[in-house]
Specification:
With 416 residues, the chain is α/β, with parallel strands linked by helices. The chain folds into two domains: 171 residues, FAD/NAD(P)-binding domain (3-Layer(bba) Sandwich), CATH 3.50.50; 175 residues, Alpha-Beta Complex (Polyamine Oxidase, Chain A, domain 2). It has 13 helices and 21 strands. The strands form five sheets. The chain has a seven-stranded mixed sheet with strand order 9-8-17-18-19-16-20, with helices on both faces. The longest helix has 20 residues. It is globular, with a radius of gyration of 22 Å. Bound molecules: flavin-adenine dinucleotide. Flavin-adenine dinucleotide binds next to α1, β12, β16, β20 and α13.
Length: 416
């Protein structure tokens, strides 16, 4: 890497990859530094024993920006779409009940039973602590319209337009990592892996000195435009040399630990049709499993012929102890809890467990105030930007949108 770069992006998850790629498309010679040998962050697809596993996100909602990226990267023909009307289930009173597709079928009681599972499904979070305004801006609007989330959603849903399609869920033939690989290929030598950013210092002229460490030692690079796309603990630590408040403010954003447990079975040993997306669990059900995705029902090529692949999530902020169990305990816990629900008659023939200690940021009460304070602090350091899943939504599509917005700001800054 040259010693002075026009823009340096730190963190090669989807946020950093999209930001660096977009800057380069704008003609800015941006470089991206990633600490691990593999880019992608929590997006990680691997094939084992004929099963195609997603160790992190299982799929993503199609958005205009993602579609455009796939076109640009030449991977649109690799996209797979989950059956748009595949039912989703919620476990209520010991039964898997389909979540209604059409608005009139919602009832306030069903909504109450959906909110908890929904929160676990997206944030692995605690409904008592999450900020509705930051976590679910549409629900927040609905509450303002209707006086409560339930009434608001019913009112928002009312304009009798008939059944609505759910957002389109997608993946790629070879898994979500296709997107990461394509971005990394386009970046080529502008992406430096196995290199950790160990320190950020402000120079007298306002530029940044970045200390990089890798197997061969350490070196410094300098930039006028620094974009940190790292989790909050790393970001806070790196910026603590600029102002110690970064560390305390960013450190106050909690993350939920989640274990992702994929189990493979012979299809003949599962009596349930597995026709659907999977299920979420109401807290009152008393299970430790937060929800399950029926991978092999959604996308082809996820399991060998005659097998099914089911991926369940355990942990979250309401059950932090679960993610501390060992992989064997987690696999047997999940098998024990999902078997009666799906009438599974045999032991799994395959299992894989991934534990993410900092899986998902929690948009807890006060989140927007914390972010406003972080933004105010950043504004004291022109040329510094933050992006990542703790800002405007953890979904892949939201990370992409946030990264694009930051790339635009960087371009405007550099051309001003
Ligand atoms: C289990 C799980 C399930 C999920 N399910 C879904 C889903 O179904 N649909 C969906 O849309 N989203 C889902 N998400 C959310 C989504 O995948 C993430 O929010 C998103 O991928 C985060 O991307 P990111 O780039 O912001 O962060 P990360 O992926 O965390 O990337 C940060 C990167 O920074 C690097 N880094 C850290 N420190 C340094 C350093 N000092 N120097 C250099 N590099 C550093 C890390 O190695 C990492 O690569 C899920 C997430 C998890 C964990």
């Amino acid at each position: 890497m040259t010693r002075h770069v026009p823009a340096l992006v730190v963190g090669g998850g989807i946020s950093g990859l999209v930001c660096a790629y977009t800057l380069r498309k704008f003609g800015i010679d941006a470089q991206l530094v990633e600490s691990s040998p593999r880019p992608g962050g929590v997006i990680n697809s691997v094939t084992r024993d004929g099963f195609l596993l997603e160790l992190g996100p299982q799929s993503f909602s199609s958005t205009a920006a993602l579609r455009q990226h796939c076109l640009d990267l030449g991977i649109s023909n690799e996209l797979l779409q989950a059956p748009p009307r595949a039912p989703r289930y919620v476990l209520v009173d010991g039964e898997l009940r389909p979540v209604p597709l059409s608005p009139p079928a919602f009832s306030p009681q069903l909504l109450d039973r959906l909110v908890g599972p929904f929160v676990s499904g997206i944030y692995a979070g605690d409904p008592e602590r999450l900020s509705v305004r930051s976590s679910f801006p549409q629900l927040y609007e609905a509450e303002k319209v209707g006086g409560s989330i339930a009434r608001g959603m019913l009112r928002v849903a009312k304009p009798n337009k008939g059944p609505r399609e759910r957002p389109i869920l997608q993946s790629f033939r070879e898994g979500n990592e296709t997107l990461v690989r394509a971005l990394a290929n386009k970046l080529g030598p502008a992406l430096l892996t196995s290199t950790c950013v160990a320190g950020v210092f402000r120079q007298n002229d306002g530029s940044f000195q970045i200390r990089l460490e890798n197997r061969d030692g350490s070196e410094s690079v300098f930039t006028n435009s620094l974009i940190l796309a790292t989790p909050t603990d790393v970001t806070g630590r790196l910026l603590s040399h600029l102002d110690s408040s970064f560390e305390s403010l960013l450190g106050s954003i909690d993350y939920a630990a989640v274990a992702v447990v994929s189990l493979g079975y012979f299809t003949k040993d599962i009596a349930h049709s597995l026709n659907g997306f999977g299920f979420l669990v109401a807290r009152s059900a008393g299970l430790r499993v937060l929800g399950s995705v029926w991978n092999s029902s959604l996308f082809p090529g996820r399991a060998p012929e005659g097998h099914a692949l089911l991926t369940s999530f355990v942990g979250g902020t309401t059950d932090p102890a679960a993610a501390k169990l060992n992989p064997e305990e987690l696999a047997s816990l999940v098998h024990r809890e999902i078997s009666p629900l799906l009438s599974i008659r045999s032991e799994p023939v395959f299992s894989n467990v991934t534990i993410w200690p900092g899986a998902l940021p929690q948009y807890n009460l006060g989140h927007s105030d914390r972010l406003a304070a972080v933004a105010k602090l950043c504004s004291r350091f022109p040329g510094l930007w933050l992006t990542g899943n703790y800002l405007r939504g953890p979904a892949i599509g939201s990370c992409v949108e946030q990264a694009l917005a930051v790339a635009d700001e960087v371009r405007n800054h550099l051309t001003a």
